[in-house]
Specification:
The protein is mostly helical and 255 residues long. The chain folds into three domains: 87 residues, Arc Repressor Mutant, subunit A (Orthogonal Bundle); 74 residues, no CATH class; 29 residues, no CATH class. Helices cover 42% and strands 8% of the residues. It contains twelve helices and four strands. Strands 1-2 form a two-stranded antiparallel sheet. β3 and β4 form a beta hairpin. The radius of gyration is 30 Å and the shape is elongated. The chain starts with 34 loop residues before the first helix and ends with a helix.
């Protein structure tokens, strides 16, 4: 129900032209819908009705185009268009997410108030800090060196030693060596005798065992080996590989 008459008794208005309301109070099994949706000037009736239906569903109910087409008679094209309207006006978000199995699914979130309204009333947060590419390997290298003492307490480094050795570790990372491989190189085969100068010991290993850079891969060979990214079909929401977003082969044929 809309929030136009939240507590009016059941009665019909008389003596006026236009619509007349018989309003009864719902005690259970009802959905509160704002007039900003029910009287939205830019949404189609299909989109308004679909938004009301989606807001009335329990969490976890499938609302893909295929599932909605089974329920209603509008067809895939009109339902897909209505969903895009709701996305445009902030009542719906759909985001693609890749599961660990490699399957791509669509996560849908419904908003009973337009998303833009929610963002406007949210306290402003400071912009996220951006980290330069050069600083990111340095931070990874520093974290790796600091954590060596967990593998062997003799590899305890001072903060000064960490910052001094970090560029050498970054050189390994920039040559394509995973951080786990760098850590394994620095902590395996340690001597049984006490390590009096762990910083000098690690610096020696980082220098003498530094691997050569990987050979450059020709640009045409790299692009030939890389498959097209997954896209979500604008019509049926099915995942397919293509260089750009759009419709899958079946939807293009149907169109």
């Amino acid at each position: 129900m809309t929030d136009q008459h939240p507590s009016a008794p059941a009665r019909a208005q008389s003596g006026t032209s236009g619509v007349q309301h018989v309003t009864e109070r719902h005690e259970d099994n009802f959905t509160v819908v704002g007039n900003h949706l029910a009287q939205h000037p830019d949404l189609s009736l299909t989109a308004i009705g679909l938004a009301v239906h989606i807001q009335s569903l329990p969490a976890g109910t499938p609302i893909g185009i295929k599932a909605l087409t089974v329920k209603f008679q509008e067809g895939e094209i009109r339902i897909a268009a209505a969903l895009r309207e709701l996305e445009t006006h902030g009542y719906l978000t759909r985001a693609r997410e890749r599961l660990q199995s490699g399957r791509v699914v669509t996560r849908t979130v419904s908003y009973n108030k337009p998303r833009t309204t929610i963002l406007e009333h949210r306290p402003a947060s400071p912009p996220p800090r951006t980290e330069s590419p050069a600083l990111k390997p340095h931070r990874t290298a520093a974290d790796l060196l600091t954590g060596l003492r967990a593998a062997d307490s003799r590899l305890l480094l001072s903060e000064r030693d960490v910052h001094r050795l970090a560029p050498q570790v970054s050189a390994w990372l920039e040559r394509g060596v995973p951080a786990t491989a760098v850590e394994r190189t620095l902590t395996s085969g340690l001597p049984h005798d006490p390590i009096k100068h762990p910083a000098a010991f690690l610096a020696h290993r980082l220098t003498t065992l530094l691997p050569p850079p990987l050979p450059a891969v020709p640009a045409h060979a790299e692009s030939a080996l890389r498959p097209d990214p997954f896209q979500t079909c604008d019509g049926c929401e099915r995942a397919f590989r293509a260089p750009h977003p759009g419709s899958c082969r079946d939807c293009r044929k149907a169109a």
